[in-house]
């Protein structure tokens, strides 16, 4: 609260004070005999102005501390007002403290519920993976009795279910990411090959060619989270690349970063939709026309997790020609230079 704003708030009081001095002067002027000398009257005016000004300065300091206390803890629930001076401030202080306490209790309850929900989802994902693995074993056991097409279809559908289950798990862990990651040096090529192996059935189903270009590079990252990010990127490329297309993965060493680019020969992305592909739930024209089962969570999760790891995920696309998703991973020298 600035002094100028305070004076504006006290304008009524200042006008009444000035009017009172004027009335006193007018009353003395009406007297037939001068009961107070002009010099004495001037001293009296100066004294009253000084007293009133001192009070205004004192009151301004009180008000300033009060408003600072109101704005100091805007984003913090762990505060308690205790600077009220006037009666109206005490009423407001009691009300705000009460509302703050209720809000804090509601927030704590919500956090407990969210933790319970995350624990339930994690437990559910763990439990659901057991029957999924059992189904895969049954398929493998009965493969001789099934045609190659049926066995492939069953494995494909099972893998899609597992993919969606992983999306649910990682989405639930976004807010608690800091509790479950470990940065170490890993071979980026090996992690990428594991992701490709996981999606082998999709490559075979659509007869898509995969190409790896660039040297073997080590990166500072979390293996589990990076695997999920790359899996989302590659899955997205596989969905929108037509049969007999090509997906090219290129590794490159920059001055303070390593880049991994996944380029496909798919349908591309319209320019006006490109800035929105990392928005939660956004499926776009391609999602509605080509892949109607798209959830709009894959690239959103990949982007969010990349940011939490200190990586950067960007995209370029040419409609009708393909899409390029580039993951930039800073090297250790980059972090040392900060």
Automatic annotation (TrEMBL):
Keywords, alphabetical: Cell membrane, Kinase, Membrane, Phosphoprotein, Transferase, Transmembrane, Transmembrane helix, Two-component regulatory system
Highest taxon in the source lineage: Bacteria
Keyword Membrane: yes
Listed GO CC annotations: plasma membrane
GO biological process: cellular response to phosphate starvation
Main enzyme class: transferase
PANTHER family given in the database record: HISTIDINE KINASE, PHOSPHATE REGULON SENSOR PROTEIN PHOR
Transmembrane segments: 12-30, 42-60
Reactions the enzyme catalyzes: ATP + protein L-histidine = ADP + protein N-phospho-L-histidine
Pfam families: HATPase_c, HisKA
Source species of the chain: Loigolactobacillus bifermentans DSM 20003
Organism ancestry: Bacteria, Bacillati, Bacillota, Bacilli, Lactobacillales
Keyword Membrane belongs to the record: yes
Name of the molecule in the record: histidine kinase
